[in-house]
Design brief:
The complex is a heterodimer of chains A (369) and B (305). Chain A is mainly alpha-helical and 369 residues long. Chain A is 73% helix and 1% strand. Chain B has two domains: 10-72, no CATH class; 88-300, MetI-like (MetI-like fold, Orthogonal Bundle). In chain B, 71% of the residues lie in helices and 0% in strands. Chain B has twelve helices and no strands. Chain B has helices spanning 10-47, 52-57, 71-75, 88-124, 134-142, 149-162, 169-193, 198-205, 210-238, 242-247, 255-263, 270-300. Chain B is flat and about 70 Å long. Classes of the chains: A mainly alpha (369), B mainly alpha (305).
Chain lengths: 369, 305
């Protein structure tokens, strides 16, 4: 992503900002910040019942935070004129993301190192690294992590199918629009509905249409969620079914961007179709493919809805993803502290894994001549 | 009598059937995959109108295998004979439907507004926040995509409880906006970088302010991209289950949570589950059929550089 200076807008503006205006701007920022701080102090005192002010929620602090954020944005224009107006483009989103991500993450770290069961009356207690020790000897968490590896490996066949479909769609066919809409459909469906439509009804052992089909094909007693491997495979298939259209469309867009002249030149040179694919299409599609696979991995790492609703992790945790495991840890056992610790560990693993992948992807997609 | 002078060469004659076979094979594969994609939807639609014996016999084609009945819609209080009668199930269903709609539309709108401003700013101006340059700020926003929802879920549960935002639509909207914001920025950045800066330069020379130029000149041009971003956000937020399951209980419960909560309890009354699933997927199916162009445009953004 090398952008030269030519991409940017160059505007020369003259802003005369008087001292009084500057003072007003500073007053707005610091004044509203003071209000926010005072409210935080008052509410914390109230929380630890040093004094009673009668607050039931932290809403007042929230409103004060909104007020401060508004003042901060507004004061940019007052303080910096044209420059401030430019900052106004990205400042709201930055403030939003920081308050919605960074702050809860810090909060999560606090929870992660404590023992906190919402159903027990003790409340939250700091317990240092006890959660880490518990995690180390929790076979189900490691099992879930191992399952994630399987689920991510399932992306390879998904990618191959998506690539084939995209190539077929890109060939000279009639009714292309119909096929495109039909192929896109699974992506539109909510995973929860899919888990009923396919997981609970079509794969139902007695009456489901797929079970009937399988029975006529010769498997007498089909059980799709009985054994570990088959259950995991079925989850993979359902997830693939919803997400193959996504990769297919990205690859299709890439295919359509390849200039026709290249294929024509290869044809003139007498290259057979197979060679044409390996020597022209595939190398040119490499950057798009890598982007599609990376995004797909990111979505796969969040896989949970289908598992929660179809197997809820069973049989014996064989289909558990990390997300669904932590979900049940909270839902069934109200174990907030331990669950958060597992989530944080998962986040760290993901960040390491993704950084590694992105670095590798950069190396691979760099053209070699 | 005229005699045929010109003949097709042997190679060309052999080429024709081969080409025909290839075509047929392509169509066969395409139709096969289309059936794989569409059959579950067909199954859900027909099951909505099936009675228990029909389900058990595995009848598939309406009017031929079985007589369609209004069973599924009746269980939601939406069949012709129930629609004007008071029905608690319908009330409940409509409330969930409405919640889902508000949450999805609200958060998508918010995300598109915030995201397009940000993407525009990042594509046009140089920023410096401390050590962070434009590319760092872009990366900061896009990296939010990696964040798994499970990390945020529990802190938000506690946080929302303190802020009295648990089980409210506002809380859900804020969280959904956060989850789709990176995708919106990704799509819109692509969109804005394809618009030449000369347009704004002309507008600025004519005396518009930078926000004026953005709102009156650039926004209309970028509208297709905004529609694409909006629809993709809509798809993701309408289908969202994880946060809704954890953070809502009675008041702000969304449709996916309702579908999930009924999955186990229905036994063989498949028609009611089918009707519920159908209601959950139908709005997006309609959108996909009508606005397919925009969805594909949105997903292809960034694929082609």
């Amino acid at each position: 992503m090398s952008s030269t200076d030519a991409d940017y807008l160059h505007i020369v503006t003259q802003d005369k900002i008087s001292d009084r205006r500057r003072d007003l701007g500073r007053l707005m920022i610091w004044g509203s910040a003071t209000i926010l701080l005072v409210l935080i102090v008052i509410q914390s005192l109230d929380q630890f019942s040093t004094f009673e002010f009668g607050f039931t929620t932290w809403r007042p602090t929230l409103y004060a935070y909104f007020f401060w954020a508004t003042c901060l944005c507004w004061a940019q224009v007052i303080l910096y004129g044209e420059q401030g107006r430019r900052r106004l483009f990205i400042l709201p989103a930055v403030l939003f993301v920081i308050s919605m991500v960074i702050f809860p993450l810090i909060f999560a770290l606090g929870i992660a190192f404590s023992s906190w069961n919402l159903s027990s009356p003790d409340g939250r207690q700091f317990n240092g690294f006890d959660n880490a020790i518990e995690m180390w000897s929790d076979p189900f968490y490691w099992n879930a992590l191992k399952n994630m590896v399987w689920y991510i490996l399932a992306i390879i066949p998904e990618y191959i199918i998506a690539f084939c479909l995209a190539v077929l769609l890109n060939s000279q066919i009639k009714a292309r629009k119909f096929f495109r809409v039909a192929f896109l459909m699974p992506l539109m469906l909510s995973p929860v509905a899919v888990s009923w439509m396919i997981g609970k009804s079509m794969l139902e052992i007695r009456f489901g249409p797929i079970s009937r089909l399988v029975r006529t094909l010769g498997w007498d007693n089909p059980s799709f969620f009985g054994s570990d491997e088959i259950a995991r495979f079925m989850i993979m298939v359902m997830d693939a079914w919803t997400f193959i259209p996504f990769m297919m469309i990205m690859i299709l867009a890439g295919l359509q961007a390849i200039p026709k002249e290249l294929h024509e030149a290869a044809e003139v040179d007498g290259a057979p179709p197979w060679k044409k694919f390996w020597e022209i299409t595939f190398p040119l599609m490499l950057p798009v493919s890598i982007t599609a696979i990376l995004i797909r991995i990111i979505f796969k790492l969040k896989l949970a809805d289908i598992i929660i609703n179809v197997t809820s992790g069973g049989p014996g945790g064989a289909t558990d993803s990390v997300t669904s495991f932590i979900y049940r840890e909270y839902r069934d056992r109200s174990n907030v502290g331990y669950g958060t610790f597992l989530a944080i560990v998962y986040l760290i693993l993901i960040v390491i894994f993704m950084t590694f992948l992105i670095k590798m992807a950069e190396r691979w997609s760099r053209p070699r001549y | 009598m005229s005699k045929q002078i010109f003949f097709d060469s042997k190679n060309d004659v052999a080429f024709k059937p081969k080409r025909f076979l290839g075509k047929t094979l392509i169509y066969l594969i395409l139709i096969f995959w289309a059936i794989i994609c569409l059959f579950p939807i067909y199954w859900t639609v027909t099951t909505t109108f099936k009675t228990a014996p029909d389900v058990m016999k595995g009848n598939l084609v309406p009017w031929w295998d079985f007589r369609p009945k209004w069973l599924g819609l009746k269980s939601l209080g939406l069949s012709p004979d129930r629609i004007f009668v008071e029905s608690t199930v319908r009330e409940e269903f409509l409330k969930r439907f409405y919640n889902s709609m508000i949450a999805a539309v609200g958060s998508s709108t918010l995300a598109v507004l915030l995201g397009s401003c940000t993407a525009y700013g990042l594509s046009r101006f140089k920023y410096r926040f401390g050590f962070m340059r434009n590319s760092d700020i872009s990366f900061f926003f896009l990296s939010q995509l990696i964040l798994p929802p499970v990390v945020l879920a529990l802190p938000f549960l506690v946080l929302y409880k303190e802020l009295a935002l648990l089980d409210t639509r506002v809380g859900l909207i804020a969280l959904y906006t956060l989850t789709v914001l990176p995708i919106v920025i990704w799509i819109m950045r692509d969109q804005f970088s394809s618009i030449p800066t000369e347009l704004e330069e002309a507008a600025l020379v004519d005396g518009l302010s930078i926000w004026g130029a953005f709102l009156t000149i650039i926004m209309p041009i970028a509208l297709p991209g905004m529609v694409a971003a909006f629809i993709i956000s809509l798809v993701l937020t309408w289908n969202e289950y994880f946060f809704a399951a954890l953070l809502t209980s009675s008041h702000a419960k969304t449709l996916p949570v309702m579908v999930a909560s009924q999955t186990g309890s229905q036994g063989i009354s498949w028609w009611s589950m089918a009707a519920l699933s159908l209601a959950a997927i139908l709005p997006l199916i309609i959108i996909a059929v009508i606005l397919e162009r925009y969805i594909i445009k949105g997903m292809a953004a960034g694929a082609v550089k």
